[in-house]
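ok, trying the design again with the full structure, not the truncated one.
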């Protein structure tokens, strides 16, 4: 009896150890339904379901590579962006925090508002750069509000501290703006800041173009993070296309013909005619022949016999 039940549940995909453990608890004479309920209660799953739950490896081709070889990355990797259509986001934490604090207080709540805004849009790669000395207790000349938010974002692998140290009582701080621009450039993402990084634009010509085209400005309105709907001006892309890897082109808007139904250009007219949507594109002569019900061949013969 023990062997028959063991073979039965093994065919269903359950492990032998789990089956033996259940049979020891319920006894060898336990019904199959009771054994199955106990296996489910214990959290045991068939091997087929466990294999379906495991993520499949993705094949990613490095940017700029023309070869057919590709590396394998899993969805859980930190450096891989699982979203296929949204750009990575790199936030200038100091700039955002000081803007939210009216340039008087380093407000960590402003960083949280910015991160939440991009999370709601579906961005999965979000990095915030803040100098390491911001972990120190606040002082009167450098007040910090809601400092615990930095610890929470660091645990979520969103916040990154740029290095700094003290040498003979003086603080040596690395240039965090260079970290921000470099990471955003390598990830082909978007920089969130109101800083123009003019010194870095003069330092590297490639960074100059990238900063001009991928810098996203913002404003805080009543504790609401608000980037502009036209990040590159009125004639530039919309905010949705600016944050997307594959922008969606708008449908062409045709200008209606000023002559309307009185237009005599026929299919050569470059304007929009709503009355011709379901009609064949005919020339004016063919349209006139169709109205008087004259065959096209007959009209051509008359034209050829004309003296």
């Amino acid at each position: 009896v023990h062997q028959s039940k063991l073979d039965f549940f093994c065919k269903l995909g359950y492990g032998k150890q789990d089956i033996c453990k259940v049979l020891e608890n319920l006894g060898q004479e336990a019904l199959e339904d009771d054994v199955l309920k106990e296996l489910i209660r214990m959290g045991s799953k068939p091997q087929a379901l466990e294999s379906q739950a495991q993520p499949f490896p993705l094949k990613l081709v490095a940017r700029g590579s023309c070869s057919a070889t590709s590396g394998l990355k899993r969805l859980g990797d930190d450096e891989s962006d699982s979203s296929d259509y949204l750009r990575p986001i790199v936030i200038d934490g100091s700039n955002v925090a000081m803007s939210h604090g009216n340039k008087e207080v380093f407000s960590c709540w402003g960083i949280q508002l910015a991160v939440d805004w991009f999370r709601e849009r579906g961005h999965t790669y979000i990095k915030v750069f803040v100098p390491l000395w911001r972990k120190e207790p606040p002082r009167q000349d450098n007040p910090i509000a809601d400092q615990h938010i930095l610890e929470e974002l660091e645990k979520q692998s969103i916040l990154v501290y740029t290095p700094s140290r003290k040498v003979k009582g003086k603080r040596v701080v690395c240039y965090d703006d260079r970290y921000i621009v470099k990471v955003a450039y390598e990830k082909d993402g978007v920089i969130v800041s109101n800083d123009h990084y003019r010194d870095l634009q003069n330092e590297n010509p490639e960074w100059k173009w990238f900063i001009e085209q991928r810098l996203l400005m913002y404003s805080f309105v009543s504790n609401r993070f608000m980037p502009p709907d036209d990040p590159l001006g009125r004639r530039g892309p919309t905010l949705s296309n600016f944050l997307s890897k594959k922008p969606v082109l708008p449908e062409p808007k045709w200008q209606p013909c000023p002559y309307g139904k009185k237009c005599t250009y026929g299919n050569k007219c470059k304007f929009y005619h709503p009355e011709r949507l379901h009609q064949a594109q005919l020339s004016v002569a063919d349209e006139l022949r169709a109205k008087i019900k004259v065959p096209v061949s007959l009209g051509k013969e008359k034209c050829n016999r004309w003296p």
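Keeping the full-length input from now on. The radius of gyration is 33 Å.
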